[in-house]
Amino acid sequence: SKISVVHCFYFRGGAELLFDGVKKHQVTLPCQPEPWDIRNLLKWIKQNLLKERPELFMQGESVRPGILVLINEADWELM
């Protein structure tokens, strides 16, 4: 059996305006056959949390330049 884990996503510095002004989202990601990666996670966020102006949040399959993504307080580009 698969374990469900609650994840917290924080949007700040103006990004929260794209998510109905909500800065903190607690979500349980659905189980899927393949492990979650950042690309799938961003697609899920876009489809399920993002409320407006997706072009300000994403460019292609990644976040737009200038948006800092932290995973456990570390820049995901350095991981």
From TrEMBL:
Give the pathway: tRNA modification; 5-methoxycarbonylmethyl-2-thiouridine-tRNA biosynthesis
* Gene3D superfamilies (UniProt xref): 3.10.20.30
Q: Where does the protein end up?
A: Cytoplasm
Q: Which Pfam families match?
A: Urm1
**Keyword match tRNA processing:** yes
What keywords sit in the KW lines? Answer: Cytoplasm, Isopeptide bond, tRNA processing, Ubl conjugation pathway
Instruction: Please list the GO biological process terms of this entry.
Output: tRNA thio-modification
Q: Which GO terms describe its cellular component?
A: cytoplasm
The record's family statement is: Belongs to the URM1 family.
**Per its record, how is this protein called by name?**
Ubiquitin-related modifier 1
State the organism's lineage. Eukaryota, Metazoa, Chordata, Craniata, Vertebrata
Q: Which gene encodes it?
A: Urm1
